[in-house]
Amino acid sequence: TKGHFRLSLPINAAMSPVVRLLVFTVLPDGETIGDSAKFQVSKCFQNKVSLHFSVAEDLLKSHVSLDVHAAPGSLCGLRVVDRSVLLLKPEKELSRDSVYSLLPGIDLSGNKDRDWEDLEFCRLQNPWSEPVSMDDAVGDFALLLQDMGLKILTDTEYQSPIECRPSRLRTYVTHGMKPEADWDRTERIIQMYFPETWIWDLVPVGPTGSVSLPLTVPDLITEWKASMFCTGQAGFGISETVSLNAFKPFFVDLVLPDSIARTEEFTLKAKVFNYLKKCIMVKVTLLEHQGFDMASESSIENQTCVCSMESVTISWHLNATGLGKQNLTVKAESIPSDALCGNEVVIVPEKGAIDIIRKPLLIK
């Protein structure tokens, strides 16, 4: 007779990343038959870990928050680094795949323990005998169990009889540790300086399973990458990587010599660079120049167009009159204007419309 039935198999994290289903029956004559199926399960963990920034991008030195979530009582290792760090050795990154690759015995398909068991059985009959290869056997339930890495204790007929024959070659196999020469002698160096690291800390989430961390965006234009793993009574968990873009719509920088002599004339240069996709009208002002006299032809305030991904240099001719370190301060401000920059209408960014820089210059 033939028939069929339906099995309901609930999936959970304990089955990840692969699960084998075995179905078998014992016939009235004692023979055991069966079949198996393999199911791939997405790689996941019991401890559900996640994190996200309050905004996707913000200005340098802005205040943002990072919300982290995990099972109550978990202790989490939090890392926020410059994206360039992840580009150096992506294969070394902690991820679901890298964690599962460290786990032994995830899939026992192709287990060869039975080969040794058959050999031991034949050696008990005759010390110089070996089993005949069973690779071509059809319908052998024992091969199915072997492929699944299972052991069975039963008095039923679940495998084909083992046939032993005299061995022509004595083989001695020794299992043990690698020779000392093969040991990994790689020197392990602990790195103590992380210039591209924003956060590297342990964060307890407490009984609620969540915490919000107030942060100040570092003074670096980059894409910050945040990730976290947690451990606790619920087990291990790891988050996806999230990003925060730290940006400036434009910035101003000063080009200064290391030092100048008193009464020496020099040209102070301020460079304005536009990161936006549109042109802007920028008013550049020399706010502070104590210890310096300005040439009559120079103007304290200048206006200029700066288009996308371009830079403009503003100059002032100064004469050193003071001594010691003297500060020079320049402000760049994006302002509305009816004038066109080339053929484009200028815009004013919603955030970061003003940038101020101050640098000291030594007068000897």
Automatic annotation (TrEMBL):
<dbReference type="Pfam" id="PF00207">
    <property type="entry name" value="A2M"/>
</dbReference>
<dbReference type="InterPro" id="IPR050473">
    <property type="entry name" value="A2M/Complement_sys"/>
</dbReference>
<dbReference type="Pfam" id="PF07703">
    <property type="entry name" value="A2M_BRD"/>
</dbReference>
<dbReference type="InterPro" id="IPR014756">
    <property type="entry name" value="Ig_E-set"/>
</dbReference>
<dbReference type="InterPro" id="IPR011625">
    <property type="entry name" value="A2M_N_BRD"/>
</dbReference>
<dbReference type="InterPro" id="IPR001599">
    <property type="entry name" value="Macroglobln_a2"/>
</dbReference>
<protein>
    <recommendedName>
        <fullName>Alpha-2-macroglobulin domain-containing protein</fullName>
    </recommendedName>
</protein>
<feature type="domain" description="Alpha-2-macroglobulin bait region">
    <location>
        <begin position="1"/>
        <end position="88"/>
    </location>
</feature>
<dbReference type="GO" id="GO:0004866">
    <property type="term" value="F:endopeptidase inhibitor activity"/>
</dbReference>
<dbReference type="InterPro" id="IPR013783">
    <property type="entry name" value="Ig-like_fold"/>
</dbReference>
<feature type="domain" description="Alpha-2-macroglobulin">
    <location>
        <begin position="197"/>
        <end position="286"/>
    </location>
</feature>
